[in-house]
Every structure is written in structure tokens, then in C-alpha cells.
Amino acid sequence: MNTFGEINWTDDFVGGSGKKGSGGKDLFLRLNEGSNIVRLVTQPYQYLVHKYKKDPENPKDFGQKVNCSAVNGSCPLCEAGDKAKARWLLGVISRPSNTYKILDVSWTVFAAIRKLAKNSQHFGDPTKYDIIIEVDKQGGSTGYYSIQPLSKEPLSAADQVIKDSVDLDDLKRRVSPPTAEQVLKKMEKIREGTTTEATPVTTSTTTSTAKKIVKATPVSMSDDDDDLEKSFPSYDGDSA
Questions:
Q1: Cα(48)–Cα(68) distance, rounded to whole angstroms?
Q2: What is the 3-state secondary structure (H, E, C) of 95-124?
Q3: N or C: more exposed end of the chain, with fewer CB within 10 A?
Q4: Rounded mean pLDDT of 25-46?
Q5: What is the pLDDT of residues 138-147, one digit of tens each?
Q6: CB of 48 within 8 A of CB of 2?
Q7: Can you tell me the distance from the alpha carbon of 212 to that of 27, in angstroms, rounded to the nearest whole number?
């Protein structure tokens, strides 16, 4: 069984292993090489995604993101043998700009933060302290990202205002699975070269519940090891 939508950090993982209207590319956080300090202000929002390539034989074609539609009955990319990857959207306050951003993370970052969350004796709830996400582009598939917790500090008054303004429905919408027809249409646009940005495909209606159990579908929990920076082009051309 798989889930999509809001989940808790301490949930047992089951699977194969801003403000309203502010949906532009600047809403997504680009992680720079070196230290990136963030404060989580939401629970993780899980979704399944494929990486569809217009030209699989082209080593420079890293593919474009197409959300998996298996929960809605079928998925053309699953049926073609392409395993979906689980990813998570996190609402964060980006330091030092102290602005709300959405961070799109893979299993490596999610698992590291989840490990902190489950260590209740020393760390616990990751919204209670800032986190350093270290990016080492020479670190390979196992050392590209590393996570370091900072000391526990309450949110400032300005931080609380940002947290209170977060539009959770926007996160739910972004992880809502598309239909098989929408996936086919997105694939066609990629083949035609008319889609140059990796905008997520979502259903026209917002998921009404924060968590939904769906039918099992093959899921890969590994990060891409060829080029992590390029393997998942971000929403609207921005990466996270």
C-alpha cells in the first residue's frame, strides 16, 4: 500500500520499500552547494512521480517529471515498466531570507529528517529546530546530501506569522495524482517538445482528505545516482 498527501514524520513508511495563489517558480527553494538552513513549518506531503525522457538514448536528456496516476486506476508509465519514485513536498522557512518556500525532496533527505523525528530522546519533532541541509556535489549518490539539526529554538513572532499563513490546500493540490489521460497528454507534450518545464500534473479537484490509502504500485526508494542535481528538474524550472 502507498500513501499520498500529508503524512507524519513518525508514521511507518509504506510503499515500495506560501500563501494561496503564490504558485510561481520563486515559491520553490533551490538548494545551493554548501549549507542551506531551513525551519520546517509543515508535515511532509508525499507523492509519486516518474521521470519521462523524450529521447532515452540521449545522455543529456534527464527527463521531465510526470506525476504517477496509478491511484486513479492506471498509469501509462507504470504499465510501461517505469517505477515511480516517492518524493515529498515540505513547507519551510528559508534562512537567512526568512521567507516561506516549498522544498521538494527525495528519499535521502526525507529519510534523514525522519530519522531525527523518530529519535524522540534527542531531537523529535523536526519543526522544533532549524535544520542544515548540506549539499556536496562531489559526494556521489550517498554523500550528495547530509542533514544536521541545530539546537531547539521556538519560532519567532515573524516565523509564526509565516507559519500561520501557509496554504496547506496548495500543498495537497500539488501532490494530488493526475488521471491516466492527463499523464498521456503530458507525455505527448514532452515528445513534441512543447513542455520545457517540469510543472506537476494534478487533478482538477483538490484532494479532500489529508491522507489517502491507495492501491500498491511499484515504487523505487533510491535516488538517481547519475546526476542528482539534474535528474529531477524542478517545478517551473526551479529546483529543490
A1: 5
A2: CCCCEEEEEEECHHHHHHHHHHHHCCCCCC
A3: N
A4: 94
A5: 988 788 999 9
A6: yes
A7: 26
Instruction: Give the residue from 169, 177, 167, 238 showing the smallest Cα distance to 204.
Output: 177
**All structural domains of the chain:** 2-221 (3.90.198)
Q: Which set of grid coordinates corresponds to residue 208? A: 479532500
> What dihedral do alpha carbons 202, 31, 43, 88 form, nearest 10°?
40
The Cα-based distances of 89 to 27, 42, 69, 138, 174 in angstroms read: 12, 9, 18, 25, 9
Q: Which three cell numbers stand for residue 66?
A: 510526470
**Please, are residues 173 and 202 in contact by the beta-carbon 8 Å criterion?**
yes
Question: Could you tell me whether strands 99-105 and 64-67 are parallel, antiparallel, or unpaired per DSSP bridges?
Answer: unpaired
pTM: 0.76
pLDDT in tens, 71-116: 999 999 999 999 999 999 999 999 989 999 999 999 999 999 999 9
HEC-encoded secondary structure of 153-199: CCCCHHHHHHHHHCCHHHHHHHHCCCCHHHHHHHHHHHHHCCCCCCC
All cell numbers assigned to 172: 495537497
Distances (CA, A) of 180 to 5, 78, 151, 202, 219: 19, 10, 45, 11, 17
Contact 225, 141 (CB under 8 A): yes
